[in-house]
Amino acid sequence: MAKSVPGGWNPKHWVNLVPTGLGEVKPHHFREMFRAAWENRDQLGYAWRILRDGCCDGCALGTTGMKDWTMPGTHLCMIRLNLLRMNTMPALDHTLLEDISRLEGKSGRELRNLGRLPYPMVRRKGEKGFRRITWDEALDLAAERIRRTDPERIAFYLTSRGLTNEVYFVANKVARFLGTNHIDNAARLCHAPSTVALKKAIGYGATTISYSDWIGTDLLILVGTNLANNQPVATKYIYYAKKAGTRVIVVNPYKEEGLERYWIPSVTESALFGTRIMDEFFQIGTGGDAAFFNGALKHLVETGKLNDSFIREHTAGFEEVRRFVSELPWEELEKSSGTTREEMRRFAEIYADANSSVTVWSMGVTQHRNGTNNVLSIANLALALGRIGKPHSGLCPIRGHSGVQGGAEMGAAPDSYGMDRPVNEETAKAIGKLWGFPVPDKPGMKASSMIQAAHGGKLDVLYSIGGNFLETLPDPQYVREAIARVPLRIHQDIVLNPQMLVEPGDPEGLVLLLPGRTRYETPGGVTETTTERRVIFSPEIPGPRIGETRTEWEIPMQIAERVHPDRAHLIHFDNTAQIREDISRTVPAYDGIQRLREKGDNFQWGGPLLCEGYKFNTPDGRARFHIARLPEESLPEGRFILSTRRGKQFNSIVWGEHDSLTGAKRDEIFFSRQDANRLGLKEGDPVLLRSESGEYRGRVKIARIRPGNLQVHWPEGNVLIPYERFDPDSGEPDYNAVVEAIPLRNEETGGETEADDAPASATGS
Ligand SMILES: Nc1nc2c(c(=O)[nH]1)N[C@H]1C(S)=C(S)[C@@H](COP(=O)(O)OP(=O)(O)OC[C@H]3O[C@@H](n4cnc5c(=O)[nH]c(N)nc54)[C@H](O)[C@@H]3O)O[C@H]1N2
Ligand SMILES: Nc1nc2c(c(=O)[nH]1)N[C@H]1C(S)=C(S)[C@@H](COP(=O)(O)OP(=O)(O)OC[C@H]3O[C@@H](n4cnc5c(=O)[nH]c(N)nc54)[C@H](O)[C@@H]3O)O[C@H]1N2
Ligand code: SF4
Ligand SMILES: [Mo]
């Protein structure tokens, strides 16, 4: 529940006494809004209806129209406006696909801007492009191939971009109907470690609080997240939280400009004078989280500042963790965290002195080989102080895609048929009975393993509902080889993207493009689940429909019906209301979804506060401490640890060259001043980065990043990240790399580069 917020303006939180932050680098909201309106000028009415009545299809904060359940006033941001065109643009000219050579070399952005996919199309090995076919032909082609394929060699992947609970659920059921558990969604590349660690610690793989708990908490701790760019309206929640007295702590290797100061367009005071967000900053090294939070716990143990009664009454396993942190030498913690023991102690003191705290984290924490341990270390610290299960206190792994929270909860996952329905023999029997057909009972492959299987020639069918592995997974060259080896690739999508153009290598190779409809084009409406576990109804929005597109849930269902016509009735749904009925039967926590039918209808599974009254979802009702190990690898002398970051993009959907928050262009490499000086580099100088998997050429940006660490934008930087390095517990790829930085001579001089084999652009191994 949000605390009441004092009215009036408070210059203490202003960025600048000069209105509109003149002279500051700041986002140009109003200019960008105008540009979005201009882009959608041919469909302004439809665009407006989507904004007014639909749930936002951007990040996972969630809205109904332009309202939310946290604050009064308008809820809208530039991400939503930038994505709007994907919903309103007309069809592409499908004859353009007849000769792929005309499209090769086009960026993802150029391909997307060609327009929506209107018709089913096919391309066989050796053909120079795609040919339009009828739906009957397309569905038969897919079904006939799938029927003669061993289900162990079939895999499904679902983006979370725009997808809804209904699509995840039907895809889940279809995969199992066809006999495979190889199904996964974008959460694998995202918050998988959070889900795994939180299930171990508290029995739920989800945020425990509501966003309104941010307002009125003593402490908001932001770890490895850049809310200002990635969940922009969260800065509005923080504005109100700060007014109510909240202190904001940031733990990050990079001092994010957007977390230091931000201009919230819908809050007059902030739009004019800006808002200072962070109160305290802890600059750790990349991959340093487990050490940092273990260090903080060590300090609490050493000083006796623990919540002993909470630990005694509501948790298990503390003794082992206490021993573990007590025995961890400070030197090791300092080396691994990239900061000093004084900083870890200072953080622990601030944390312990508060009465309530909310920890928010994102990709900086999860995208590591040690991702699950990182999250466990965050959970341990919160448990040691009893900060889960009471108002204004809890854990918030803030999600990325609208509706991604529902992906695994709806069973689009290799190890579950739905929330609390883990894949095993016993559940398989129960689900088989409920659904009326047998389901496989051994966990399937995770997304990251599917590509390895494809590379090894062990996958015959890859059915991708959206997504773009060529740009979202490490090492694009490896991924290209892998997907080329899959004899049948089905890309169910709304637009073109580069992975669709990869020619099949197999002599029987076939690529099918199946055109889907957006959530707003889905009759009967759909639902999504937000980070605060809110299941929201998004109605169908009247407007133009594209070519022969079909809704995203019915396409896999229709293929499955043709694979097994004798059993087709067992997988059939007439409409989305029927799907919601089935969800409520399969996933007990989603009971209530069957009653959502109008704009605004919603409920939060688990209620506003999960684990309320310290009741944890474990067999004995207690939360569990787990040892959170430190990463094993260390950085060789003279090398850097590189991570990837977001700019003006929505994941692989890039829309801007210049990030107005950081001031960086897409090819700029974030260097600390100290490292740049050591290498004799200055702002704008060209540099070659080299890792074990590839090379990348960019320019120096002097940035407030911890020395020894570098950052580049992805997908451009993915060439530097080797494949086959995953968090063993969750399958999350490690999106970091050890790199060497080689100064190049300025291209303008036309001189030779100092590195003898420097490429003109990024290259993979
Ligand atoms: N505009 C926009 N919005 C988006 C997206 C988008 O692409 N564009 N993507 C959506 C999706 S799917 C997601 S998952 C979210 C992602 O949202 P974020 O996780 O905020 O995304 P990133 O930009 O990757 O930011 C990662 C942050 O972690 C920090 N960091 C890097 N390494 C470490 C580390 O080892 N430890 C710590 N503590 N910090 C570290 C970086 O400096 C950076 O601040 O955003 C969602 N919203
Ligand atoms: N280097 C690096 N890589 C990363 C990350 C990182 O931080 N660094 N972040 C990771 C994270 S957090 C995530 S979530 C993943 C994102 O992984 P995904 O969700 O798989 O990827 P997106 O880039 O969001 O997928 C966009 C593609 O999906 C298709 N698409 C868009 N909308 C729809 C729709 O409504 N229906 C259908 N069927 N298709 C649609 C379009 O072709 C579009 O190009 O990437 C991961 N990859
Ligand atoms: S903050 Fe997220 S949910 Fe809100 S409008 Fe922006 S993209 Fe949509
Ligand atoms: Mo994500």
Automatic annotation (TrEMBL):
Keyword Cell division: no
Pfam family of the protein (one): Molydop_binding
Start and end residues of each stretch annotated as Disordered: 744-765
Cellular component, GO, one term: membrane
GO molecular function: 4 iron, 4 sulfur cluster binding; formate dehydrogenase (NAD+) activity; molybdenum ion binding; molybdopterin cofactor binding
Protein name: Molybdopterin-dependent oxidoreductase alpha subunit
Every Molybdopterin dinucleotide-binding domain range: 643-738
Keywords: Iron, Iron-sulfur, Metal-binding
InterPro entries attached to this UniProt entry: Asp_de-COase-like_dom_sf, MoPterin_dinucl-bd_dom, Mopterin_OxRdtase, Mopterin_OxRdtse_a_bac, Prok_molybdopt-oxidoreductase
KW Cell wall biogenesis/degradation (keyword) present: no
Domain Molybdopterin oxidoreductase stretches: 116-562
